[in-house]
Amino acid sequence: MPNNQFKKSELYSFITGVASTAIARRLQKKFNQADLSLTIEQWSVLYHLWKEDGISQQDLCKATFRDKPSMTRLVDNLEKAGMVKRIPSRSDRRKNLIYLTERAKEIQDTCYGFAEETVEEALSGVSQDKIEVCKEVLKVVYENLR
Amino acid sequence: MPNNQFKKSELYSFITGVASTAIARRLQKKFNQADLSLTIEQWSVLYHLWKEDGISQQDLCKATFRDKPSMTRLVDNLEKAGMVKRIPSRSDRRKNLIYLTERAKEIQDTCYGFAEETVEEALSGVSQDKIEVCKEVLKVVYENLR
DNA sequence: TTTGGTTAGTTGTTAAAACAACTATATGCC
DNA sequence: GGCATATAGTTGTTTTAACAACTAACCAAA
User: Keyword Kinase on this protein (chains A, B) (predicted)?
Assistant: First the structure.
C-alpha cells in the first residue's frame, strides 16, 4: 500500500469538519454576546444577500450549499426576525425574491467584523501561504464532490 | 490594511464548512446505498470506539468534539440500533462505559473502506504535500479555538 | 463527616439538516 | 392549444446541535 493511501485514511477531521465547527461556534458566541440573535446558518444566508439581494430562494440554495426545504425554513426564521422580506417575483410567479430589511443592512458591518475577527483568531500563527493552499484544497474538494 | 487581512475575511467556506459538509454527505450516501443505517454522527462515535471501546461518554465527547447532551442522544440511538451497550462503571458509578456489539465490529472494515473511498474521491488531484498542509492548518485552527 | 465544588450523565427546548412527498407555475414539444 | 416535464417553493418527519437546567456521584478540605 502506498504511503499516500494510508495518510488519506486518517483524515477523520476532514470528514467531521472539526475545524469549521470550532470556527462556527466561536462566531456564534460573538453574535450571542453582542445580542445579535442570529444563527450561523442565518448569517450564511445574509452573507450572500449583503453582496446582492432580490435573488430567489433557489439562488440562495446554490450559494449556501443547502437544499430547498432548509432554505424555506431559514428564510421563514429570517423573516420572523425582521431581517428579510419575501417579495413574489413578477416575471415568474413561482419565485420569491428575498430582500434585506433596514435592520439587516444595519448589522452588516458588525457581523462582517465578527467574522473577520473569528477567522483571525482561528488562523493565528498560520502563514498566508498555507492559508492559500487550504483555500485551494477546500475548493478542489468541493468541485470533486459536487 | 495589509493584504493579509483582506484575504482572511474571504474565508466564508472555512466558517461554513462547505467542504466537510460535501464529504460527509458523500459518505452518508455510501452508507445508505450499502443499507448501513448509520448516520455520519453515529459513525464518528464508532470511529473512536473501534480504536478503543469501554470508554466513557465523556471521553467520546472529547474525541468527537461534541457536548454531553449530544453524546447522550447519539449513544441512545446507537444502542437502539444495536451497535453499542452502556455498561455502568464499577469504579465510578457516575460513568457509563460504552462497549461495541458484535454487529458494530462486523461493519468496521466496510465503514473504514467507505471513508477511505470518500476521502480519495474528495482529494483526487490534490498533491500529498498540499494535503499535509491542510491537515496541519486544520489542527492549528482546532488548537487556537479550543 | 459534613460541606462545597467538580464531574458524568440526562432532560427540555429551539433551530437546523436531510429526505420524501406535495402544490403551483413555467416551458418546450406535438 | 394541450400535454409532459422541469423548476420553485412548502410541508411533514426524523435526527442532530447547542444551550440551560437538572440529578447523582465523587472528591477534597475544614
Answer: no
